[in-house]
From TrEMBL:
<dbReference type="InterPro" id="IPR050227">
    <property type="entry name" value="Rab"/>
</dbReference>
<dbReference type="InterPro" id="IPR001806">
    <property type="entry name" value="Small_GTPase"/>
</dbReference>
<keyword id="KW-0963">Cytoplasm</keyword>
<keyword id="KW-0458">Lysosome</keyword>
<keyword id="KW-0479">Metal-binding</keyword>
<keyword id="KW-0472">Membrane</keyword>
<protein>
    <recommendedName>
        <fullName>Ras-related protein Rab-30</fullName>
        <ecNumber>3.6.5.2</ecNumber>
    </recommendedName>
</protein>
<dbReference type="GO" id="GO:0000421">
    <property type="term" value="C:autophagosome membrane"/>
</dbReference>
<dbReference type="GO" id="GO:0005525">
    <property type="term" value="F:GTP binding"/>
</dbReference>
<dbReference type="InterPro" id="IPR027417">
    <property type="entry name" value="P-loop_NTPase"/>
</dbReference>
<dbReference type="GO" id="GO:0005764">
    <property type="term" value="C:lysosome"/>
</dbReference>
<keyword id="KW-0333">Golgi apparatus</keyword>
<keyword id="KW-0547">Nucleotide-binding</keyword>
<keyword id="KW-0378">Hydrolase</keyword>
<keyword id="KW-0342">GTP-binding</keyword>
<dbReference type="GO" id="GO:0005794">
    <property type="term" value="C:Golgi apparatus"/>
</dbReference>
<keyword id="KW-0636">Prenylation</keyword>
Length: 210
Protein backbone atom coordinates (compact mmCIF):
# COMPACT_ATOMS: atom_id res chain seq x y z
CA UNK A 1 0.00 0.00 0.00
CA UNK A 2 1.20 3.52 -0.81
CA UNK A 3 2.58 5.37 2.18
CA UNK A 4 0.60 8.60 1.96
CA UNK A 5 -2.87 9.79 2.86
CA UNK A 6 -3.65 12.05 -0.08
CA UNK A 7 -2.10 12.92 -3.41
CA UNK A 8 -2.74 16.42 -4.73
CA UNK A 9 -1.99 17.85 -8.16
CA UNK A 10 -0.63 21.37 -8.13
CA UNK A 11 -0.19 23.19 -11.46
CA UNK A 12 2.04 26.27 -11.88
CA UNK A 13 1.18 28.69 -14.67
CA UNK A 14 2.25 32.18 -15.69
CA UNK A 15 4.32 34.00 -18.29
CA UNK A 16 7.61 32.59 -19.54
CA UNK A 17 10.55 33.51 -17.34
CA UNK A 18 8.67 34.38 -14.13
CA UNK A 19 10.48 31.59 -12.27
CA UNK A 20 8.02 28.66 -12.14
CA UNK A 21 10.68 26.00 -12.73
CA UNK A 22 13.03 27.60 -10.20
CA UNK A 23 10.28 27.67 -7.55
CA UNK A 24 9.51 23.99 -8.13
CA UNK A 25 13.16 22.96 -8.07
CA UNK A 26 13.90 25.01 -4.99
CA UNK A 27 11.04 23.33 -3.17
CA UNK A 28 11.55 19.75 -4.40
CA UNK A 29 15.36 19.63 -4.66
CA UNK A 30 16.53 22.56 -2.57
CA UNK A 31 18.47 24.08 -5.46
CA UNK A 32 18.29 27.25 -7.52
CA UNK A 33 19.26 25.91 -10.95
CA UNK A 34 21.88 28.05 -12.68
CA UNK A 35 21.04 28.95 -16.30
CA UNK A 36 17.60 27.39 -16.18
CA UNK A 37 16.33 26.91 -19.74
CA UNK A 38 12.70 27.41 -20.79
CA UNK A 39 10.29 24.57 -20.06
CA UNK A 40 9.15 22.61 -23.08
CA UNK A 41 5.50 21.63 -22.67
CA UNK A 42 5.06 20.34 -19.12
CA UNK A 43 7.28 18.78 -16.51
CA UNK A 44 6.46 17.39 -13.10
CA UNK A 45 8.09 16.68 -9.76
CA UNK A 46 6.88 15.01 -6.61
CA UNK A 47 7.48 15.87 -2.99
CA UNK A 48 5.96 14.43 0.15
CA UNK A 49 5.19 16.79 3.03
CA UNK A 50 3.65 16.29 6.47
CA UNK A 51 0.38 17.94 7.36
CA UNK A 52 -0.65 17.35 10.96
CA UNK A 53 0.55 13.73 11.25
CA UNK A 54 -0.30 12.70 7.72
CA UNK A 55 1.97 12.23 4.73
CA UNK A 56 0.72 14.22 1.75
CA UNK A 57 2.12 13.72 -1.71
CA UNK A 58 2.28 16.79 -3.93
CA UNK A 59 2.54 16.16 -7.65
CA UNK A 60 3.72 19.52 -8.94
CA UNK A 61 3.22 20.28 -12.63
CA UNK A 62 5.48 22.96 -14.05
CA UNK A 63 4.01 24.28 -17.30
CA UNK A 64 5.72 26.21 -20.09
CA UNK A 65 4.85 29.90 -20.12
CA UNK A 66 5.50 30.32 -23.83
CA UNK A 67 2.40 30.94 -25.91
CA UNK A 68 3.20 28.12 -28.37
CA UNK A 69 2.69 25.51 -25.62
CA UNK A 70 -0.64 26.91 -24.46
CA UNK A 71 -2.82 24.15 -25.93
CA UNK A 72 -0.70 21.47 -24.21
CA UNK A 73 -0.72 23.16 -20.82
CA UNK A 74 -4.47 23.82 -20.92
CA UNK A 75 -5.13 20.10 -20.70
CA UNK A 76 -3.49 19.99 -17.27
CA UNK A 77 -5.87 22.44 -15.64
CA UNK A 78 -8.86 20.13 -15.38
CA UNK A 79 -7.35 17.62 -12.95
CA UNK A 80 -5.59 20.21 -10.79
CA UNK A 81 -6.47 20.47 -7.10
CA UNK A 82 -4.56 23.78 -6.90
CA UNK A 83 -3.34 26.29 -9.47
CA UNK A 84 -0.47 28.61 -8.64
CA UNK A 85 -0.43 31.66 -10.93
CA UNK A 86 3.01 33.26 -10.90
CA UNK A 87 4.16 36.71 -12.04
CA UNK A 88 7.53 38.43 -11.68
CA UNK A 89 7.44 41.46 -9.33
CA UNK A 90 10.17 43.05 -11.48
CA UNK A 91 8.33 42.55 -14.77
CA UNK A 92 5.20 44.62 -15.39
CA UNK A 93 4.11 42.67 -18.52
CA UNK A 94 3.97 39.44 -16.49
CA UNK A 95 1.54 41.19 -14.12
CA UNK A 96 -0.45 42.73 -16.99
CA UNK A 97 -1.06 39.25 -18.41
CA UNK A 98 -2.73 37.97 -15.22
CA UNK A 99 -6.30 38.59 -16.48
CA UNK A 100 -5.51 36.45 -19.52
CA UNK A 101 -4.27 33.62 -17.28
CA UNK A 102 -7.31 33.96 -15.06
CA UNK A 103 -9.61 33.57 -17.98
CA UNK A 104 -7.73 30.37 -18.95
CA UNK A 105 -8.19 29.09 -15.41
CA UNK A 106 -11.90 29.91 -15.50
CA UNK A 107 -12.28 28.18 -18.84
CA UNK A 108 -10.30 25.01 -18.20
CA UNK A 109 -9.98 24.38 -14.46
CA UNK A 110 -12.50 22.97 -12.06
CA UNK A 111 -14.72 25.62 -10.51
CA UNK A 112 -13.58 24.70 -6.98
CA UNK A 113 -9.84 24.63 -7.67
CA UNK A 114 -7.65 26.29 -5.02
CA UNK A 115 -6.17 29.46 -6.59
CA UNK A 116 -2.96 31.03 -5.34
CA UNK A 117 -1.35 34.19 -6.71
CA UNK A 118 2.44 34.44 -6.37
CA UNK A 119 4.70 37.42 -7.03
CA UNK A 120 8.16 35.89 -7.50
CA UNK A 121 11.70 37.40 -7.53
CA UNK A 122 11.26 39.63 -4.46
CA UNK A 123 15.04 39.51 -4.05
CA UNK A 124 15.20 41.99 -6.98
CA UNK A 125 14.17 44.78 -4.67
CA UNK A 126 15.81 47.58 -6.66
CA UNK A 127 14.07 46.49 -9.85
CA UNK A 128 10.63 45.94 -8.38
CA UNK A 129 7.79 47.23 -10.61
CA UNK A 130 4.76 45.78 -8.81
CA UNK A 131 4.35 46.86 -5.17
CA UNK A 132 3.14 44.13 -2.82
CA UNK A 133 -0.08 46.08 -2.18
CA UNK A 134 -1.02 45.95 -5.88
CA UNK A 135 -0.49 42.19 -6.02
CA UNK A 136 -2.54 41.67 -2.86
CA UNK A 137 -5.37 43.89 -4.19
CA UNK A 138 -5.44 41.97 -7.44
CA UNK A 139 -5.65 38.68 -5.56
CA UNK A 140 -8.52 39.94 -3.38
CA UNK A 141 -10.45 41.39 -6.29
CA UNK A 142 -10.15 38.18 -8.24
CA UNK A 143 -11.04 35.72 -5.47
CA UNK A 144 -7.70 34.01 -5.08
CA UNK A 145 -7.55 31.82 -1.98
CA UNK A 146 -4.32 33.50 -1.02
CA UNK A 147 -1.40 35.61 -2.16
CA UNK A 148 2.31 35.33 -1.44
CA UNK A 149 5.51 36.99 -2.57
CA UNK A 150 8.43 34.62 -3.05
CA UNK A 151 12.00 34.34 -4.18
CA UNK A 152 13.25 31.08 -5.64
CA UNK A 153 16.75 32.62 -5.47
CA UNK A 154 16.90 33.26 -1.73
CA UNK A 155 14.10 30.82 -0.77
CA UNK A 156 11.72 33.45 0.62
CA UNK A 157 8.31 31.82 1.16
CA UNK A 158 9.03 28.89 -1.16
CA UNK A 159 8.37 26.16 1.44
CA UNK A 160 5.55 28.25 2.90
CA UNK A 161 3.84 28.39 -0.51
CA UNK A 162 3.70 24.64 -1.06
CA UNK A 163 3.09 23.82 2.61
CA UNK A 164 0.09 26.14 2.66
CA UNK A 165 -1.25 24.47 -0.47
CA UNK A 166 -0.84 21.02 1.12
CA UNK A 167 -2.39 22.12 4.42
CA UNK A 168 -5.37 23.80 2.86
CA UNK A 169 -6.12 20.90 0.49
CA UNK A 170 -5.71 18.33 3.28
CA UNK A 171 -8.09 20.17 5.57
CA UNK A 172 -10.65 20.53 2.78
CA UNK A 173 -10.33 16.84 1.96
CA UNK A 174 -10.67 15.76 5.59
CA UNK A 175 -13.78 17.88 5.96
CA UNK A 176 -15.23 16.21 2.85
CA UNK A 177 -14.31 12.76 4.23
CA UNK A 178 -16.06 13.60 7.47
CA UNK A 179 -19.21 14.72 5.71
CA UNK A 180 -19.15 11.52 3.68
CA UNK A 181 -18.76 9.37 6.83
CA UNK A 182 -21.64 11.07 8.56
CA UNK A 183 -23.74 10.70 5.44
CA UNK A 184 -22.97 6.95 5.42
CA UNK A 185 -23.75 6.52 9.12
CA UNK A 186 -27.00 8.52 8.80
CA UNK A 187 -27.98 6.29 5.94
CA UNK A 188 -27.26 3.05 7.78
CA UNK A 189 -29.07 4.36 10.89
CA UNK A 190 -32.25 5.23 8.98
CA UNK A 191 -32.07 2.32 6.55
CA UNK A 192 -33.32 4.52 3.70
CA UNK A 193 -32.27 7.77 2.17
CA UNK A 194 -34.44 10.34 0.52
CA UNK A 195 -33.51 12.15 -2.65
CA UNK A 196 -33.08 15.40 -0.70
CA UNK A 197 -30.58 13.72 1.65
CA UNK A 198 -28.52 12.68 -1.31
CA UNK A 199 -28.50 16.10 -2.90
CA UNK A 200 -27.61 17.83 0.35
CA UNK A 201 -25.14 15.38 1.79
CA UNK A 202 -23.43 13.19 -0.71
CA UNK A 203 -19.80 14.04 -1.13
CA UNK A 204 -17.46 11.52 -2.61
CA UNK A 205 -14.28 11.10 -0.54
CA UNK A 206 -12.20 11.51 -3.65
CA UNK A 207 -13.78 14.60 -5.12
CA UNK A 208 -12.87 17.33 -2.65
CA UNK A 209 -11.63 19.52 -5.46
CA UNK A 210 -12.14 17.41 -8.52
N1 LIG B 1 16.53 37.05 -9.18
C1 LIG B 1 15.73 35.98 -9.36
N2 LIG B 1 15.77 35.32 -10.53
C2 LIG B 1 14.94 34.25 -10.68
C3 LIG B 1 14.08 33.80 -9.64
N3 LIG B 1 13.39 32.73 -10.08
C4 LIG B 1 13.82 32.50 -11.33
N4 LIG B 1 14.75 33.41 -11.70
C5 LIG B 1 15.43 33.51 -13.01
O1 LIG B 1 14.44 33.76 -13.99
C6 LIG B 1 14.72 33.06 -15.19
C7 LIG B 1 13.54 32.18 -15.60
O2 LIG B 1 13.33 31.19 -14.60
P1 LIG B 1 12.45 29.87 -14.90
O3 LIG B 1 12.26 29.18 -13.61
O4 LIG B 1 13.05 29.11 -16.03
O5 LIG B 1 11.09 30.55 -15.40
P2 LIG B 1 9.79 29.81 -15.93
O6 LIG B 1 8.64 30.61 -15.43
O7 LIG B 1 9.82 28.38 -15.53
O8 LIG B 1 9.91 29.97 -17.50
P3 LIG B 1 9.24 29.03 -18.66
O9 LIG B 1 9.71 27.64 -18.42
O10 LIG B 1 9.76 29.58 -19.95
O11 LIG B 1 7.76 29.18 -18.54
C8 LIG B 1 16.00 32.26 -14.92
O12 LIG B 1 17.09 33.01 -15.44
C9 LIG B 1 16.10 32.20 -13.42
O13 LIG B 1 17.44 32.14 -12.97
C10 LIG B 1 14.09 34.54 -8.40
O14 LIG B 1 13.37 34.26 -7.42
N5 LIG B 1 14.93 35.62 -8.32
Amino acid sequence: MEDYKYLFKVVLVGNAGVGKTCLVRKFTQGIFPPGQSATIGVDFMIKTVNVDDDKIKLQIWDTAGQERFRSITQSYYRSAHAIVLVYDVACQPSFDCLPEWLSEIETYANRRVLKILVGNKVDKDDEREIPERIGREFSEMNSFDYFLETSALDATNVDALFEQVATRLTHDMKAADQRYSSYKSDRSASGTVTLTDRVNNIISPCCGRN
